[in-house]
Structure formats: structure tokens, C-alpha cells
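Input set for joint prediction.
Command: fold jointly, output C-alpha cells.
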Amino acid sequence: MAEIEIGMGKDARRAYGLDDVAIVPSRRTRDLDDVDTSWEIDAFTFDVPIMASGMDSVVSPTTAVTLGQLGSVAPLNLEGLWTRHEDPEPLLEEVAVKPAEEAWAQLRAAYAEPVKPELIRDRVKEIRAAGVVSCGSVTPNRVEALADALVAAELDLLVIQGTVVSAEHVTKGNPEPLNLKTFVRRLDIPVIVGGCSSYRAALHLMRTGAAGILVGVGAGSTSSTRRILGMGVPQATALADARAARMRHLDETGVDVHLISDGGIRTGGDIAKAIVCGADAVMVGAPLAAATEAPGRGFHWGQAAVHADLPRGARYPVDRVGSLEQVLHGPASDDAGTANLVGALRRTMALTGYATTKELQKAELVVAG
Amino acid sequence: MAEIEIGMGKDARRAYGLDDVAIVPSRRTRDLDDVDTSWEIDAFTFDVPIMASGMDSVVSPTTAVTLGQLGSVAPLNLEGLWTRHEDPEPLLEEVAVKPAEEAWAQLRAAYAEPVKPELIRDRVKEIRAAGVVSCGSVTPNRVEALADALVAAELDLLVIQGTVVSAEHVTKGNPEPLNLKTFVRRLDIPVIVGGCSSYRAALHLMRTGAAGILVGVGAGSTSSTRRILGMGVPQATALADARAARMRHLDETGVDVHLISDGGIRTGGDIAKAIVCGADAVMVGAPLAAATEAPGRGFHWGQAAVHADLPRGARYPVDRVGSLEQVLHGPASDDAGTANLVGALRRTMALTGYATTKELQKAELVVAG
Amino acid sequence: MAEIEIGMGKDARRAYGLDDVAIVPSRRTRDLDDVDTSWEIDAFTFDVPIMASGMDSVVSPTTAVTLGQLGSVAPLNLEGLWTRHEDPEPLLEEVAVKPAEEAWAQLRAAYAEPVKPELIRDRVKEIRAAGVVSCGSVTPNRVEALADALVAAELDLLVIQGTVVSAEHVTKGNPEPLNLKTFVRRLDIPVIVGGCSSYRAALHLMRTGAAGILVGVGAGSTSSTRRILGMGVPQATALADARAARMRHLDETGVDVHLISDGGIRTGGDIAKAIVCGADAVMVGAPLAAATEAPGRGFHWGQAAVHADLPRGARYPVDRVGSLEQVLHGPASDDAGTANLVGALRRTMALTGYATTKELQKAELVVAG
Amino acid sequence: MAEIEIGMGKDARRAYGLDDVAIVPSRRTRDLDDVDTSWEIDAFTFDVPIMASGMDSVVSPTTAVTLGQLGSVAPLNLEGLWTRHEDPEPLLEEVAVKPAEEAWAQLRAAYAEPVKPELIRDRVKEIRAAGVVSCGSVTPNRVEALADALVAAELDLLVIQGTVVSAEHVTKGNPEPLNLKTFVRRLDIPVIVGGCSSYRAALHLMRTGAAGILVGVGAGSTSSTRRILGMGVPQATALADARAARMRHLDETGVDVHLISDGGIRTGGDIAKAIVCGADAVMVGAPLAAATEAPGRGFHWGQAAVHADLPRGARYPVDRVGSLEQVLHGPASDDAGTANLVGALRRTMALTGYATTKELQKAELVVAG
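C-alpha cells >
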């Protein structure tokens, strides 16, 4: 470990972000057609190693189905607008054309409505009915209360997600805290859980029995977690640490937990770099919010932006790039790198000579100033 | 120590600023309600590890009281406008609406008025009368002359502050220089003294008998001390060095001297990072000058900006963020990170699993490019 | 090798770009007139260690001749406009004055026309007829199909160029992939092949029997290869690695393969730095597209920008600097460094005391923050 | 020496600029009045460790006298306008108000006039007559031809200056090159010679018998030497290397050669940092061109900008800061750091506890990101 002396009384480790690294072509190249980008988690195989971010500006039941059909998987935010409102589409339509402050006030009000278990059931059913893997995301605070509804809804895959999720939540209060270790093992749905950003935190999350771990806390230097809370680990390092935890967990238990990189992806090249650092797949928000079908209709926000006392993030406009299909599979019309994410990943694999994403994880990296 | 060869004839040490580091979440998380941000110095306990900067644009007798009631402590500049003028409020009101140059000229003139010991007495009395800890700041040059007045005023806590304050001031001139070691021990008021920015300088200041040390000289890369004087140490390193000095001093004397980080704080995340580097509390100027009650009324300046031959710093406009209460305890209305500083610190503590600021000092850091 | 731990499960190497380094003057200086910038490849000697980039905005048969007469060598893109169209000059004339989108659409359409072997023959003949070395560039995909036409055309020097070219292309498909090792040895034309960007990739390309290697993949931090594909090695490192491969190849075979640095050159100083890192010559695109005679007529583009699904690069306007002669040999009219590239290189050689480019390769470098 | 592997076939050294470092206050402070900024070279003592740059926009006979009276020393460019023209003031007056291109053309024409030995004599006499040290600068190419005129003029101090000056100039041509070693020892005037930027180059220049060495080649990252020629060493490293050469030369010969840092100084803090790195004094151009009396009248240029084929640098406008006295000794009216350079240096010395510039050289440095 590269320990750095910050000063005589405190050390730190040097950490690297995806922007700090680049992939070195090997001595082989490969046909574009021979490249396989698929990945597996639990019993599911997905053609595309890209998960949507469970955000209301990205995933609606409709886009969840479209994304599933395009080879991806998209968790619906089960504490978001679609489980609070019978039909949030008119609201989203309305706020998309309103002045920013007015729109934001109206959205915040919409989040005050309680989550309705029967809507969870209906949304999941709607997605399953289309023949794609149904996936939903919830926060650690709510997950126990919603567990029965999730099982009843026959959800295929559950994401338990927070800014930071630990396997050991400490409380002095009366309500027993969520014991992820018991909960995940008891639940009859495969679970992806995170974020986390260190070897130890990842290892402990793996020990809960989760099928996958979300890796990423305040990964980008412009991240509001980093700016407001002072907390975060650049993503290349977070992934490489979690990769080591995964190897240890595999060694100790024989169970291979998957790593999903969450944060800071803009291009297919970023996806390739996350995979080389150790990810099996990446979670992607803003690039999909830029799709014409995205429910945010040209705006992107996370639920942390709605926080009453300490909002992190905001609702901001995004340039539309093209359809979800174009964002994932092209064609791209310019060289911004924001369309045809999978095509770019495939080309990187072909030009660096790796046939599968598993093989791509072995590629060499340089740290480029 | 990370010695770097600048060239064949000169070495240096690599130093890090707060912007260079980020806090790594541990494997635990914690309830927000279980977090305790208080700190102690001498006989005083403060709920909030934030001291105001003793600057006329930040601390008036009125805001000193408000800040004390909000859990903070605010030294009044005892060589500033409030001890030179019976009532500087009309002046501050006036200059706030004047063109910049005219305003500045009028302010400079106001600083030409002599400091009046009876005003020191009255101001301190006014603050004490409100039931909060009275605190005042003076420069090393003046402190001996004002000592009697300070004791007579029954000041609770004294800050002796300059750009650089050393325990060993050398002079060839006739007037004996201030001997901090004798002075601090003789004075019947607990003293916080600084700034300093190295292990040795901090250690020697601790040996004067001071209750706390201000750590920070030219900490930021845009600091005028750094730019004009070429002098300074990035703050993470300055704190980590002072932390080592504190440990040695504790070991040698059994006395635990407190470290107050002075410089470069903008958000609650910055406060958390300063604590992880070794601070018990932080001194904060500009973020409080942005409060609606701040005496600077939308402007911020330090007394070094008034210097006749070599002004350092200027009077510059600040965006108003909200009331002092909002700046410290929220709610924040956007994700700028400049409001709800304490709320952000609490959240960082909860998400990284540390219950007290003392525990938070043990958190891990990364150096993030 | 400077291995860096990205995290516990992944290492990387620190890499440097040309912008990161600077040349250290030695203890000698030298007369400007005593400096020799020539280089040799196969049986050819060129006065100027600058190859043009085989791009339609830079090299036409006319500019190929001019550049040859100026001491340089300019490969014509044998899959570009000049081998698809009898006379592309009117088209280039036309699009130069059209709105950007319209121009681009028309250019893309022009690239849809098939490559005509008889035009290859005629273009090569035209260049040879002017008494300069004829040089053409093709992609690995096409080179076998065009081999007979190239030999028939009596081409002097062939460049086989792609984003990444490896000596070991893997395919599952039916058509046998290009075996560079057999192909290059069989072909009766000296070959320059690349890009590559690692020791091993360079070494394997050298073993194909190529006379020269193009070094450079995604070299610049703004490179679209780096941004879109996540792939690339900063150029100083790519060259220094290829230099080691060349030394090994020379040691093993007695054959000295030449290194041509491809990417990121703007000034004569950049050329000097590339040579110090290990290059014998540099390939230059944008600086020549800025010449008044350049066929792009104030615009610059690569063929990758025409890609149907995943365009990399774009057609962008360039400021005109002066004639090709001025760009190479001056006089320069300002201090932008974009004119008199050879004059600048000569001056660097004189001021650092090196008489030949071979000697300049020994100069010392600093890494400058 | 901190060797860095650029790649497998090339190493480099890490180098640092003045902007990369900051001075660490020691455990002492000192009275401002007890600080001594003087330095000595040969038989001369100067109160202020600042030499003017021998540029026509900075030094005229008049400003040479003023600067001498202010404690500085200012070499007149003996190949500049004042030795080519009887009275260049009207020309300078004229071009100061002309459009940039016209002005530049007229200035270039003025430099075409030959240098006149009798004007050298008169200018030197004029400066000496005012009772200040007369100093002039010439290029290595011309110095032999002008030697007699310089001795005849009774010049006190000679600066031999070029972008790079070596003690070993190699030529194949007929005219014997300047042998600095013989020339400097023969000449009856103390000589300062440079620029140089490495240990070895500095050492060899010292062995010529020079009284002082100019250290600095392409020091700044925006330097045109760095940009156009690819050549240069960041200044902190150049000084620290020259410092080691000086120590060796002192050890070998008992002769202490002085180091004058040339390049990149903007503030008094920069001067302090150069001294800590090893300089006895600094050469300053732009900060003095900003004085109201400067002959450039609001413009600044070096003679390299006049070069016929490869101009380096340009004529650019400078903001006027105040009189020469204000630039050197204040008062400063704002916190830009460009006025009261000596006052800032004195304050840095006082706050870091060093009484003389010789002592200041021992101060500690940090490398600040």
C-alpha cells in the first residue's frame, strides 16, 4: 500500500480516479465481431455490462423495459415518484417546461407523498410482464419495512443503495438497526448492495450474502459527497480495493461476488477503464438521463437533492444525445463519446485484444498525468 | 518524512492541502442522532467545533452572542472597529452601500482611531452579560499593553493571533520583545495562540502554556501570504505536523493542548477533513461573513488588508447564504455546501461511523489527485 | 519500472506525455550552422525528421511533392479522397466555404465512393514523377487487397496505419487475418507500421520486418481515442518504451528499426522532445493542415471522423500559419511556435550542444510539473 | 537524485518551479527593522537583491541611475536601442501610442541600426557620472568585438547573457569561438554570465572566473523557450543544482561565485523563494517594466522577440503599478504583490526569523501541490 505521510502525525493513501488512468493496448488485436460484453449476476445474464441508476430522471417502468430489451438492467427507485404516485408522467411532463425553481418546488412536494406498497407491486408486475428482469432499488432505512411487498411483487433483483451502506450500522436508539447479514440471507431475492469504497467495507458487505456490491462513494472530484461531506475515494482505487476484497472473499468462501462500479461514467472508455480496474458492470445515471425517452425529459436529479436540511446534488439540465438505443448501441453522430457506449467498449476490447469483459479486467493501465 | 530533492543542493518536504485529501468511510455507519460534535478547551465546552475568525466583518458584540448561543465561540477583534469607536454600526451601514474605493478609504480612516481600553471593557462585559463565553483577539505586538485591560474586563478566553506568531521573537531594538512563555503563564486567562505551521513552531507555542494553538499560515494556494510573501504550508500537512507536536507535548508534560485549524474552510466537509488531520476545532471567517447578520453586511476583510505599505488581502463582496443559524445548523437551500456546516459534519460522522470528533480524528484519508 | 498501486487489487505504471518533460541544456553549445537534422530509413535519407500524416486535409499529390522537395516525406492516404475520386480538388474547394454540417455531409458521401486501384497507380506515378520519394498509407484491413496495386505502382515507401496495429490479429471469422510478419517480408516495398504504444507491441511489430514503427496511441489527454475508448499511453513513455524494444531488437537481430512518433506535435520543441525520448522522426498532422497549400483549406479531419457508428475526431477549422515552407523552415512571424518547426529544432540542438538528431536522443530530460 | 523512469529506455529527473514551493516559517520571528537584504558581488554591495533585466523596455540610462539609487543594479542592453540610436526616447514615445503592429514594425526597424561603440562609451559614462555602479549586458557573439569599448568606457560590471551560454561553444566554422575561460580572466571587468540551468553547465561557467552566474533557462511553463524550443528547467531545481555547483566550486577553489536567478519573478514572495533555493539575487524584467518611469512606457519586450526567423517572446502591454520606488520599496496600494517587492521580502524574512539573505537561504521548503 502506497502510504503517504501527510504530516508527522497522519498518513494517507494515494488514490486514483478513472480520469487518472488509461488502458494500454496489448500486443494483440481482435475482430470487433468476436468480442463478448455480457456479464452474469446470480441466475441472470445481461448482454451489456451497464446498469441504469435507480433515479426517477432515468428509470420509469417504461425505460426499465426498454433498457432490459437493449441488454441492460434498470432498477426502478421503489421510493421514488413511481411508487408514490399512480401516474407521475403528467407531473414530469409539466415540470419539464416550468421555470427551474417552480419545477423543483413541485417535484419536492411530489416526494412528500408516501410510498404505496401496492404501487410497488404494480410497477414490478408491469416490468416483469414485458419479459425483462425486474429490478428495484430501496434505501437501507426502508428495506425491512418493504421486504414483504418486494417478495410479494416477485421482484427478480433488489438493489439496496445509499450514499454509504455498511454491514455494521451502529445505533443507540431503540429500533434495532437493519442487520444486512441476516436480512440479505433471509430474503428470497438476490441483492446488490452499496455504495462502499474500501477493502474492508466491501469485504463486510460481501459477507452479507449479497450477489453484487456497488462500489463508489464521492468518486468524482466534483461530487457533492466529496465537496459537502469531505468524503470519498477516487473510483479506480475504490474498484481496485474492492477487487482485492472479492478475491479474498472468493478464496474464503468460494463465492464470487460481482462488483458494479457506481459513479463518474460518461463514455464507453470510462466503462472499459472501470472494468479494467475490477468492475463486472457499471451503474450509469447522467448518460441515460440524456436519452430522449428518459423520464427526466432533459433534466437529471437524485433523491439526495430533495433532502430537507442538507440537499446534495441538484436538478440540472442535460443535453439530449439520442434514443436509449443510440446511447447504448449507437450510431453516434459526433465524437463526444456519449452515444454508442457499448460500441466504444467493444472497440476498446477489439483494439486491446480482449474477448470478454472478464479478460479485459487483466488489461494493463498507465497513470497518465 | 517525505524528503524531496528539489535539486542537488536543496531538499523540501511534500505538503498537502485539505483539497488534496478525502475521508474514507469505514466499515461502520452510525445514526445521525448518535453523533456528538462538541469539543472542550480549558474549562469550556462548545457544542460546535467552529470558532469565528476575529475579524470585524464577522464578529461584532451582537454576532459574538448569537454565535455563542448557537454553540460556537467568537473572538471579538480587540484592536478593531469595536474598540476604536463607540458605535461602528452606522459606519458599517454607510460603507456597505458606497462605491468600493470610497468605502475602503473610509474604513481605513476608521482604523486610524486609537484603541480605547474602556471600550474593550464594555464590549467584553456586553458579551458576558448575554451568558456566553467572552472571547477576544489581539496581536502579539499589543497584547502586553492591553493585558491589564483584558484581566480587568474579566475576559474568558484570549486569542493572540498574527500571520505568524513564534514563541521566540528576536529583536535588536530596545523594548524587550514579548516573551510568550512568561506572559501566557502569568496571565490569568486561558490563551489560544498562533498561527504556526510546523512541528517545531507548534511545539514551542505549546510550551508557552497556551490552552490552544492556531494552526495555519498561508494554507491555501490563493492565500495572499503565499502569493505576496512566498510563505505557507498546505493545511493538511500543517495540522498533521502540529498533531505530532501535540502528542509529544502531551507525552512530555501530560498537558493536552488543543489545535484550532485556521484557514481555507468553506464547507462542513472541509471541517471534517481538518478534524481528521488533527484539529479539535476550526476557525472560520468567510463562511460566517456570508451570514445575513454579519457586521460586514455582504463584505469581508481582514485587518492585514489595511496595512499602510504592504496590504495583504482586500475587502471583497460575499454572497449572502442565510442567517448565522442556517450557516451553522441549516437548513441549506442548495448543494453549495456553505450552509448547515454542522449538519454536514454530523452526516460525515454518521456515514463514516464515528461518534465523536475525537474519534473522527482516527478516520483514514486518501490523497485524491 | 515504476509500478504504482492503484488499489489493493490492481497496479499501473506512471506514464508521461511530451508536455510533462523538458530538455536540459548540456554544458556545451554549438553553431546553428553545424547542426544536421537529417534521418534515414531503408535506403532513403530525408533532410527533415518530419513525416506528414496521411490525412486528406494534409496530403494531396501536390503537397506530397512540395513536402518532399522541402526535405520531408508525405504519405498519401491511399484509401482517401484522391484514390476514390478522379479529382477531389473541386469538392474540397466547395466544402471549404459551406456551412459546417453541410460540408461534413458532402465529405462523408465522398468517402462512400470505392477506392480505385488505377487511381492509386496514377497518384503514386504523379508523385514519383516529381522526383521525390513516393509514400502511401493504407489500413491493415485493406493492405492485402491493395498489395498488387502498390507494387505495380512502384510505391517507394508504404505506411500501414491504424489506431492500433498489432502483429497478432486474432479472429474467429473465416477470412484469415492479415499476418503482418509474412506480408511485410513478402512485400517488395519498405514498410512503416503502427500505431503501437508498448514495449511488447513495438517489439512484435519490429519482428515483422518493418523498416519503421509508428509509436503513439491516444497520446494526448484530449485525444478522442483516450476520451471515447479509454485507451492510450502518454507519448514520452510510449516512445521510451519503444526505444527499449528497438535496442533489444537491434541486439537480437542486428537490425535497427526506426521509430516515428505519431501524435501531439505542435511546435519544433515538441519535435525535439520526441527525439530525446527516442524518436528518429515525427509524424505531423494539424501543424501542416495549417499551411496555406494544405488541401483541407483551413480545415482538418481524420478518416476516423467519418466512421458510421462511432466517429472519433471531427472536422475542425485550423488557423492558417503560412506556406508549407514557412511551417517547416520559416520565417515565423510570431512566437506561437507553429512556424519554422525545423528552425526551432535546429536552435534547440545548437543551444543544447548536439550536432545530429541521433546525438540529441542522448539529451537529459526533466519532468516539469 | 530523483531519477524517474519515463519509459523502459529513458529516464528523467523530477524538477520543481518556484510556484511549486513555499517557505516554511521557522520557530523564530524577528523585528522587521532588524532585517538586512543586502548582497555583495565582487567589490560591490547592493542594498537590494534585485537586478534589473537588461531589456530596452526596462533599462534606459535614466532608469539605470534611478534603480542604482534605490539600491538595485540595472545592466543597460549594450546591443539595444540606446547604443544604436543617439536618442531613442522620441521613438519609444512614438511607438507607445501606435497600433501594435505598426509599433512593432517601427521598433524592429530601429534594431536594424548598427551598434555604435561611442554610444556605449557615452551611456556608461552617463550612468557612472550619477554615482551608481555602471552595468551593461552583451551577448556572447558580440562580447569580444566590444571588449575594448567596454574597458575604455570603464564599465563597472559586465553581464554576458544569452538564452543559453556555455563555457564550451563548439564550432566547425573558421572564426574561433568565444573562449569564455580565457576571455573572462583577461577582461578587467567583473563578469556575470548565463543563462544556464544545470549543475554541470553552472560549474563550467564558474570555472571561467565569472563573479556571478545567471541561472535560468525556460524556467516558467509559459516560457517561449520551453514552448518553442522544448528546452528548460523549472527554476527551483535549476537554482538548487547551481547551488550544489557553487558549493563544489567553493570547495575546489575557495572562490564563492554568486547566483542570480533569472526568470519568473512576479512578487517579493517569489524573490524570497528564489533565495531559499540558492540565489543571492534575482534578475527581474516584467515587474520593473510595469513602473511608470520604465522606458517601455507600458510595453515589455525582449530582443529575442525581434529575431528574423524565429521570434521568441513578443511585445506585450503591462499594467502600470507605480514608480520604480514603489515597485521596489512601496507603498503598495493593493494586494497584487507587484509593488513593494523589497518590503515583502523583508516581511518574509522577519516572519520566518532570518536576519540576512544568506541566512534565508537555509529556510525550509515545502512542495505544495
